[in-house]
Amino acid sequence: MAEIVMGFGTSHGPLLATPPEEWDLRANVDRKNPELAFGAGTYTFAELAELRKGQGFEKENAVEVRRERWDRCQKQLDALGERILAAKPDAMLIIGDDHHEWFQQDIQPAFSVFYGQQVQNRALTPAEEEDVKSRGGNYSMKIYYPPKDEAYPCPADISRHLIQSMMGDGFDVTAIGEQPSDNGQVRTLGHSYGFIYRRILGSRPIPLIPVQVNTYYPPNQPSPKRCFEFGRAIARAVRSFPGSQRIVVGASGGMTHFVIDEEMDRRLVDAMLKGNWDALTSEPDIHFRSGTSEIKNWIVNAGMMAETGLKMELLDLVPCYRSEAGTGSMMGFATWN
Questions:
Q1: Other CB atoms closer than 10 Å to residue 177's CB: what's the count?
Q2: 120 CB contacts (<8 Å, ≥6 apart)?
Q3: Is-contact 306 10, C-beta < 8 A?
Q4: What is the DSSP string of 104-125?
């Protein structure tokens, strides 16, 4: 049978490519955001700055602090790449979320699995580049998208088996046989996957199984409990595949952002470290909004790990603040071995 030999989790935010001196590019976007999610509330930037006044974010935004956080993140991204390659995987299953990259308003599956022969990480068009730049992504494009199109092979036989197995396990998974396209041009692979292949793997074409979870868009985001059970179903499906393939699985995204909530991050990471699945899955769903919703990808991963017996090692948890209101990204890096 196929075997999950390693798990990992990684943040994929644009600050991981943006020099610390330029993090204000993203802070300027925060200042224009009228719906910053924090806890169970929603705030303008001014309201959030007033709410969190006196919490020391001025010191957190000192350039020397930003540089120290940047160095810690780069160290762990390099370490993840080394560990993944050392596991010698035959395929890599990545849990990611879609930001209207493959899916649009017309349809948004809660859970989906791609079962085609390959995916293309397409270079951005000039119009797409300008759109990314307008959202403060001047530097981040290079860690998501290649300068020229790249194709990554996909183990279609394994993916089809996963879909069929999970259907029998109570999950009505959307099956994607072809990469969506517009007028003959494929849509971008998605930054959840492009980040891992571009930044962590250096474009090495390890066969990819893209699994997507709708963490972002109402009204059909799965609950934390449903995400955890979905992960368990994936692991059972992998284990039932009649082969000897070595599979590495990973969660892409998270932790809390665009507003950092260190207490929430540490609470959920602690639950994963201790295998306290009740605490992990009982977190109020309203806390998983905006970018913070991507922690659900980690919860899917935790569900897979619960079926394997692999143990979590937290490599680092790095708060990367970019404004006086406490906006930014908590960067998390972990493996299960």
A1: 11
A2: 149, 150, 151, 152, 179, 186, 189
A3: no
A4: -TT---SEEEE-SSEEEEPPPP
- Please give the radius of gyration of the chain, using alpha carbons only, rounded to the nearest integer: 19
Distinct helix (H) and strand (E) counts, the chain: 12, 14
Q: Residue written as tokens 């919860």?
A: 299
For residues 129 and 157, give the distance between their C-alpha atoms in angstroms, rounded to a whole number: 35
Backbone angles phi, psi at 143, to 5 degrees: -95, -5
Q: What is the pLDDT of residues 13-22, one digit of tens each?
A: 999 999 999 9
Within the chain, where are the H helices?
A: 24-31, 45-51, 57-60, 63-86, 126-134, 141-144, 156-168, 191-195, 224-239, 262-274, 277-281, 295-308
Structure pTM? 0.97
Please count the other Cβ atoms lying within 10 Å of the Cβ belonging to residue 86.
9
Per the structure block, which two tokens stand in for 92? 């890599």
Residue 138: CB atoms within 10 Å: 17
Contact 92, 207 (CB under 8 A): yes
φ/ψ of 16, rounded to 5, equals: -70, -10
Say if residues 12 and 191 touch (Cβ distance below 8 Å).
yes
> Helices 224-239 and 295-308 sit at what angle, rounded to 10 degrees?
40
Q: What is the DSSP string of 284-295?
A: -GGGS-GGGGGH
The structural domains of the chain, ordered by start, are: 3-336 (3.40.830.10)
Q: Can you tell me whether residue 261 is helix, strand or coil?
A: coil
Q: Please write the tens of the pLDDT for every residue from 262-311.
A: 999 999 999 999 999 999 999 999 999 999 999 999 999 999 999 999 99
